[in-house]
Amino acid sequence: VQLVESGGGLVQPGGSLRLSCAASGFTFSNYHMSWYHQAPGKERELVASISSTSGSLTYAESVKGRFSISRDNAKNTVYLQMNSLKPEDTAVYFCSAFRSSTRYWGQGTQVTVSS
Q1: pLDDT higher than 90, residue 53
Q2: Which whole-number Å values give the CA distances from 23 to 31, 42, 72, 84, in the listed order?
Q3: Engineered SS bond to 39: which of 5, 27, 91, 97, CB 3.0-4.6 Å?
Q4: What distance in Å separates the CA atoms of residue 109 and residue 75, rounded to the nearest whole number?
Q5: What is the model's pLDDT at position 11?
Q6: Contact (Cβ atoms closer than 8 angstroms) between residue 37 and residue 90
Q7: d(Cα 48, Cα 2) in Å, to the nearest integer?
């Protein structure tokens, strides 16, 4: 099983980034997918989640209206479009797949929002 995140980097406040997470080794379309972030010294927090069929989307209050999660089951990939980025969005962003009691994690990608 592999979840490989990409698309992180350094961006100025107000800028945008699009994170991708490529999945392999399991039946991607059967799994709900989520993005979490973890800032230094803080716990890992849920940012956004999308159901296996894209019928249900969930967002943390802090990112509503700025971030958008989507998935392409044909490409085994989940995305996180991040707009109007703020310094407090700085964190390592992790992709996660879950179904019933099974959860997989990626290694994370760093997002830094700074001028």
Answers
A1: no
A2: 11, 26, 11, 27
A3: 91
A4: 20
A5: 98
A6: no
A7: 20
